[in-house]
């Protein structure tokens, strides 16, 4: 599988969003006031959230396509380390009713920088009171936070397990969904140079290697009832990014098998019998490695390239996109 277009590659940015206003001052008392608690808890109430103004969408001015495309590469750190990327991620989390996870991480980052024991204790209590009812933490992580705020000088290291769990949730659940979200794809499309999209007409690899290109190709494939082929392709890309020969790789291989290759499944991808048989045997024998789906992907890419790709280039899905892109 080739992905050499370079369209979605870019250097990392190293800017951080300013801490939200609600974290800039430490409360004067250990416990939050009733008013402050109610305001904080409104963040986690879907009804209240509907009445709150969403966080402002970042201005695309000054952002070039490669920079924005890099936010979806690698880990969640790529988007968080860019000021505008972080803000767009915050907008996505707000829509997903999960904004509290990022706010918790930002609050604990501020806590780490505090020097005064009294200031740390007051802010640690505020963090616990604000986020404990809403974020999904293990009992062990929650207990460590509660225990340390009882001391005169809370140890930020005791917040470590909670921070790790929330960051894992952002990385493994919310970041993958952000990469596929409408808000991110729309932002990318605003920045996409017309020359990138024109390149898709002469390079199938460039089309598959571009976030916006795959998005529009997927919409077209859905219209001809062939979307499962691209979904399988994307699942294998994700599979290959997992640590080689790990339990996570073996588990993901089973998910892909059951989702796309099992006979009669809703999203079944049709492969030559011999190719499917080899994949099934290797998964059952726990021999999953980075090469597991190589032959399957070659077949699927050829299927997509032969007819759907050619028809996509002639479709209104592609021509309408070209018409609205700037040079």
Describe this structure in words.
- The longest helix is centred in the middle third of the chain and has 20 residues, at 160-179.
- The two termini are 29 Å apart.
- This protein folds into 2 domains: 21-179, Regulator of G-protein Signalling 4, domain 2 (Orthogonal Bundle); 195-324, Regulator of G-protein Signalling 4, domain 2 (Orthogonal Bundle).
- The protein is mainly alpha-helical and 327 residues long.
- The protein contains 19 helices and no strands.
- 61% of the residues lie in helices and 0% in strands.
- The protein has helices at residues 34-41, 46-51, 65-70, 77-80, 83-95, 99-113, 117-131, 139-148, 160-179, 182-191, 194-199, 204-208, 211-223, 227-240, 247-261, 273-284, 294-306, 308-313, 316-324.
Strand count, sense and barrel status of the largest sheet are: none
Number of strands: 0
- Can you say what the CATH homologous superfamily of the largest domain is? Regulator of G-protein Signalling 4, domain 2
Number of domains: 2
Radius of gyration: 23 Å
**What is the straight-line distance between the termini?**
29 Å
Order of helices and strands: HHHHHHHHHHHHHHHHHHH
Mean pLDDT: 87
Distinct helical segment count: 19
Biased composition (Low complexity): 28-40
Biased composition (Basic and acidic residues): 50-60
Protein name: RGS domain-containing protein
Domain RGS: 75-188, 203-322
